[in-house]
Write a structure and sequence with these properties.
tt1808, chain A, Rossmann fold, 3 domains, eight-stranded mixed beta sheet, six-stranded mixed beta sheet, 25 strands
């Protein structure tokens, strides 16, 4: 039951009307009526109820839409808490905005609230600005605090029941010890629903991006660092009654908050230097705003599926156009993983991991598999070790773009780990160089490779001398003499690199490739390479719309293949499963549709039991 539900149950307010014509009546504020379908009104109603049940203010002293003296006649304060029963002396003035307003709108709300609160005749002690989960409280109790102050008078939270401001708003266990040694109730951070988390992430990104202050990927990279700090602070050992560090502190300037957050980050960076190598590069006041968006959320305890879908939906919108190459749609990834059925002792790699989608879904698959073998409640250690050992020891990724590699690592951390073996490097470079970065990267080592390599980019010999080291980086005359090519497409070289990484005889791969590689006459030599080095298990032709939503219109297919063993030759009786689904769960605009992918997985399982060639 929400606080508003409780207020309605107690008769302090009621909601009438249906669907898009709902009205809320604040009974205890002279039966004041407002449109409850207005998102701003929903925010006000919820906070009004919090003032009663969380902050312990007498409901008779909380008024809605209070006319402001000495201001233009139409000026009204959203909520006013009064010190007296006659409601003559304002104690706090609240300005409410809908969740998700821009930073500029939030700052404008601050000015509106301060203007309403600093009445010449009836000055209030506190100003509260509420925009959903994002809040700011200003303290004007000190006569020396000028009405223009907006920085040094920020406090963690509105005092409860006319008391003193708390040093922090959030304490582990929901209580703290005051200066007199008495235990007082407080708030603890809480897990959230998917939509609330999506909105919080979007608000953070917009604050960091700032309409162009940082590029979108740079802004997301900085957000990754900050979320990293947030999660690590939640996981830090602390006793009940102790405050979290990732939050606003009373009368702490932005510069001091930034020092505190950066100190937390630097400490964790020392423990895990592979995750992030750079410091947080965000303006102090911007960082404070981001903290205010996130401080109330318990990311660590938020349901894993909620976090996964929230981050994925956010990145769905983020990785479009110029960044579409770094994102593979969830339905395609899930399909590839289900087709390959990884085991928890397999070494799994994505050599072009982008935002980490294939790695995450391999991890999710393993977590579900753990649940089939061990009961999460009665066998928590076995359950945890089953999937966590896979994440820590068997899951590998390579991403050439450092900022996107950071996104992948952060994505893994949000999903409870698996980031350890994700590196930022050129996967087409010498395997020895990759091995020097992480000893897990070696030839003939991986049981499964899941990947969507970049399409269309040309690797030029003049820029990348390693090109000549690839068989597919050369042409060959009638005597078999090699001649280096001037350039080669990246997806072709990835095919050879995948073959090198896989275990001979047993290693398998699911690779998304442009159809041109599979159909163009000029690519016959590539197809010959594939058939000689791999047993082709299945080819699933994706519809044209598969990547349109993400800014890439190339028609593509997923090929599933097994690396041949030493001396193994193609056989005439090797059957290939083929399918061409029309429905894959979404269309070219990103709207949800039906999907035939699960049925294809089922048909492929039947095909493996009776391998005769057929087309689905």
């Amino acid at each position: 039951m929400s606080y508003l539900d409780k207020a309605i149950k107690d008769g302090y307010a009621y909601i009438s009307g249906e669907d898009n014509r709902k009205k809320i009546t604040y009974v205890t504020s002279d039966n004041h009526v407002e449109n409850y379908n207005d998102p701003e009104e929903e925010v006000r109603a919820e906070f009004w109820a919090e003032l009663i049940y969380v902050y312990d203010y007498p409901v008779s002293r909380i008024k809605i839409e209070v006319t402001v003296p000495d201001r233009v006649p139409t000026d009204r304060a959203d909520i006013v808490i009064f010190e007296d029963d006659d409601c003559k002396r304002p104690y706090a003035v609240v300005e409410c905005k809908k969740d998700g307003v821009t930073d500029a709108e939030f700052l404008q709300a601050i000015e509106q609230g301060v203007g309403n609160a600093t009445w010449v005749k009836l000055r209030a002690s506190y100003v509260v600005i509420v925009a959903g989960a994002t809040r700011r409280v200003l303290d004007f109790t000190d006569d020396e605090t000028g009405i223009l102050e907006r920085e040094n008078n920020i406090i963690a939270d509105l005092p409860k029941n006319y008391g003193k401001p708390q040093e922090f708003r959030f304490y582990k266990g929901g209580w703290y010890t005051d200066d007199d040694g008495d235990k007082k109730p407080a708030m603890d951070i809480q897990p959230v629903a998917r939509e609330e988390l999506i909105l919080a992430i979007k608000k953070c990104h917009n604050t960091l991006w700032g309409g162009g202050r940082l590029s979108p990927p740079t802004a997301f990279g900085e957000l990754c660092k900050i979320i990293f700090v947030k999660i690590r602070d939640e996981q830090a050992a602390r006793k009940a009654g102790e405050p979290y560090q990732f939050q606003i502190k009373t009368h702490e300037p932005s510069s001091k908050l930034a020092q505190r957050i950066n100190a937390l980050y630097d400490k964790q960076k020392e423990k895990d230097p592979e995750v992030f190598t750079e410091s947080i590069k965000v303006d102090d006041r911007v960082l404070r705003t981001v903290v205010s968006h996130l401080e109330a959320i318990n990311l660590h305890k938020t349901d894993l599926d909620v976090k996964g879908v929230a981050f994925e939906q956010f990145m769905d919108g983020f990785f479009k156009g110029d960044f579409g190459q770094y994102f593979t749609p969830r339905p395609i990834i899930e399909f590839a993983v289900k087709m390959m059925k990884p085991e928890n002792d397999w070494n799994v790699l994505d050599p072009a991991c982008g935002s980490g989608g294939f790695l995450l879904h391999a991890l999710d698959y393993m977590r579900k598999q753990a649940g089939e073998y061990y009961d999460k409640d009665t066998q928590p250690v076995e359950y945890f070790n089953y999937w966590h050992d896979f994440a820590a020891k068997h899951l590998y990724g390579i991403e050439i773009n450092d900022e996107i590699a950071r996104v992948a690592k952060m994505n893994m951390i949000v999903h409870d780990d698996g980031h350890t073996n994700v590196i930022s490097a050129d996967a087409l470079d010498s395997i020895d160089k990759l091995h020097d970065r992480n000893r897990g990267f070696a030839k003939d080592r991986f049981d499964l490779i899941l990947t969507n390599p970049p399409f269309g980019s040309m690797i030029k010999k003049a820029e990348k001398p390693y090109l000549a080291g690839y068989e597919l980086g050369n042409t060959y005359d009638g005597n078999g003499k090699a001649k280096p090519r001037g350039n080669q497409s990246s997806e072709v070289l990835f095919i050879e690199r995948i073959w090198e990484f896989l275990k001979p005889g047993s290693g398998k791969a699911a690779i998304i490739l442009p159809d041109g590689v599979l159909t163009n006459s000029s690519s016959q030599y590539v197809r010959d390479f594939i058939m000689e080095r791999f047993q082709l298990l299945a080819v699933v032709s994706l519809p044209q719309a598969a990547f349109t939503h993400f800014g890439a219109g190339v028609k593509a297919s997923v090929i599933f293949a097994r690396k041949r063993g030493a001396g193994e030759k193609p056989s005439d009786d090797e059957a290939i499963f083929m399918a061409a689904p029309e429905l894959i769960g979404y269309d070219a605009t990103g709207r949800k549709t039906g999907s035939q992918l699960d049925e294809i997985v089922r048909q492929y399982e039947l095909f493996q039991k009776d391998p005769s060639p057929f087309f689905v």
